[in-house]
Amino acid sequence: MTTNPRSAIAGLLFSAVLVLSACGSGAAPAGTAADTASNPAETGTSEAVSTTMLEVSTTTVSSDEARSGFVSDVAAAAPILEGLTEADLGCVADRLLAEMDPAEVVALTRNGPRPDQASLAVAALGDCDLVVSVVSLGIGQSLAADPDAPSIEPECLLEGVTAEDLVPFLQARFESGAVDLDDDEAMDLLLDTPVMANMIRCSTEAMLGVSADAPAVCAGLAERLGQMMATLMDMEPEEGDEPDPFALVAVFRVTDEVFAWLVDEVPPDLRGDAELVRETTGRIGTLMAEALADLAEMAEEDAAGDPAADPAADEARMAAFLGMMARIAADLEADMDEVEAAASRLRDWTVDTCGDSSSMLFDLLTGMGV
């Protein structure tokens, strides 16, 4: 089964926070509030039980007891916090106790923060410089628990990420109380952070098997292929939308940049091949940009009328697009055998040097007719 890298890693992030937001969701001893709340028919409503517990706790729980209970119990209830030290957990408890009654801290330890406590809980983590650490721990645990997860280090996903980047995401997750792997709101919150780019780069490096002892060219290639994949994902149309032919120009611009870099990285006897392939991809991009400019004029003319009411306009644009591709193919036909041979030699070298996954660059070109 093929997994979209962005969805897979986003799922890991969301799963990590789900564990964090489920503080106290583990089994509680019989007779506790958690036990009776799961079977309200035995003792009345869970709300009544919680109210009674809170009233009793207010008179019997001291700040020291609430702090000690948080440090000793919250990690067992929320495995994501297991990796934090007692000093870390004590810091969070102190920040919570500065804003909450001891009984409320006890309830939070058992049940996790209520939606109205989300910002307070995240602020406590932030005051103790633990936001990034907590997310990193959660990602690591999620990766370890998923046998199908890519071999990615949490540090790679969080490279360049600050607590400020993650605070809105964590707060939203606490407020919702539930995590959906296709959560558009969470994706939007992470969109402008380094996390999204890291997802693509790190999954590409994992796919290429890039390690510390790999040739430097492989790390550079992985980085550039990650950028290429990011461009391809940005091109992906929304559900129900038609693919944008103008986005093809961006693809060839990115591949042109990869080959421009590759010219100086390949052995001397392959530099001519790299230059030829680069010139060809650049030429295709230029021809497509010129042809698509004509299509843009057609689209503007159609927009002056009512293109939605004229299916013939869509057919005319598609015919023009196919004609453009045919003209490009004819323009390149004379040199195509030489270009294909050069691309084949480059493919063999990159696969021998960096592994089979590095062929994705050439697979893309093959799909575009090079």
Give a structural overview.
By secondary structure, this protein is mainly alpha-helical. 71% of the residues lie in helices and 0% in strands.
H and E string: HHHHHHHHHHHHHHHHHHH
The number of helical segments is 19
Strand content: under 5%
What is the overall silhouette?
elongated
Give the key terms:
mainly alpha; 370 residues
Topology diagram in text:
Blueprint: H1 5-21, H2 33-37, H3 40-43, H4 46-60, H5 63-77, H6 86-97, H7 102-111, H8 118-127, H9 131-145, H10 154-157, H11 163-176, H12 184-191, H13 194-208, H14 216-235, H15 247-262, H16 271-304, H17 311-332, H18 336-354, H19 360-367
Helix pairs in contact: 1-9, 1-13, 4-7, 5-6, 5-7, 6-8, 8-11, 13-14, 14-15, 15-16, 16-17, 16-18
Offer a quick outline of the entry.
This protein is mainly alpha-helical and 370 residues long.
